[in-house]
Every structure is written in structure tokens, then in C-alpha cells.
Amino acid sequence: MNKLERLLHKAKKLQEPGAGTVQEYNETLWDLGRQVLNLYVKGKLNIEKNSVCQIRDENVLNLSSFVKEAGKYPPAGKDREVDECRFTEAIAYCHLDLSKVTEEAAGNRYHVTYSYYRGDNNPRGVPAALADLILRVFRICNYYEIDIETVINEKHEHYKKKLDENKYLH
């Protein structure tokens, strides 16, 4: 799901009674408007007769491409790059990131789906902490040339098969 779709889903969800604050809804609409304008200015959004005719997004990455892209950018100031430490040390950093997710969930007065920002414009909260963890895993996969997309698909199919088998046992 791309950013535009995420914003559309979020705006629709926030319209439901009790789903969020007016401020959250307004901020989402503001972000949605900026995203639409950005796509239009870049020529990726074509609008004719008050309807969207086409959205072109050449920058959409599949999981394997995203792993390679994430591998290019180690986290600034967080730790050494993956190639400077052993595999087990890199996994220990994942454990540290997972602890940060737990800390955010336990000490956060916001809902776990909510991202918030401090003065540095860096997203915080449970979603941001999970993103840090996932990006670190992607960097590890890139460095060790692990085809995580294939393995994720295989595991997903395995889980679906087991779920289907369990449905028929009960």
C-alpha cells in the first residue's frame, strides 16, 4: 500500500465516531492534500473531468528492492553498520529495537497505531519503533544476501495451509 492509499484509509477510519480527534482528522486531510498535490506536480497524477484517470508510481518497491534500498542507509548515529559487527551482534541490536517498541507501547499515552513527532520531525511511537526494527532486519538481510521476500512468501503460504487444515479439524 502506498502513502496515498494509507492516508485515504486513515482519513476514512478517522471519520468513524470515536476513532480519533478532530485534530488527527484535520492533520490527515492536510497530509492527504499535500500528497495529492505532490503527485500532481510531479506528473504522477492525471485528473480529467473531476476524476482521477491515472496514478503512475515508478518508485514503488517490491520487498526485495526495498531490502536492497534499506541496506544502503544505515541508521545515523544508532550503531555501526551491519558489516562492522558479527551476525549475532546485529541480531542483538534487533532485540534492542524490539525493547524500544515495548517501551513505547508501555509508556506511551497515545494509541499504538499513532505516530507523534518531537522537534526533529522524526516520527516516534510504536509504528516508528517497529519501522526501525524492520529496517534493521532489512539491512541485515541485504548484507548477508538473505532473500527474505521468498522466505516470507513461503512462510505465509505455510501458515495459510496450516490454518486451512485446522479449520477442518474442528
Task: Please tag this protein with its features.
170 residues; mainly alpha; two-stranded antiparallel ribbon; 6 helices; 4 strands; globular
Query: Uncertain spans, ≥5 residues at pLDDT below 50?
Result: none
* Rounded radius of gyration (Å): 20 Å
For the largest beta sheet, what order do the strands appear in spatially?
1-2
Average per-residue pLDDT, rounded, comes to 79
- How much helicity do the residues have? 55-70%
Oligomer: single chain
Strand content: 5-15%
Total strands: 4
Q: Which shape, going by the Cα principal axes? A: globular
Summing up helix and strand content along with how strands pair, one would put the structural category as: mainly alpha
Distance between the termini: 34 Å
Number of helices: 6
Order of helices and strands: HHEEHHEEHH
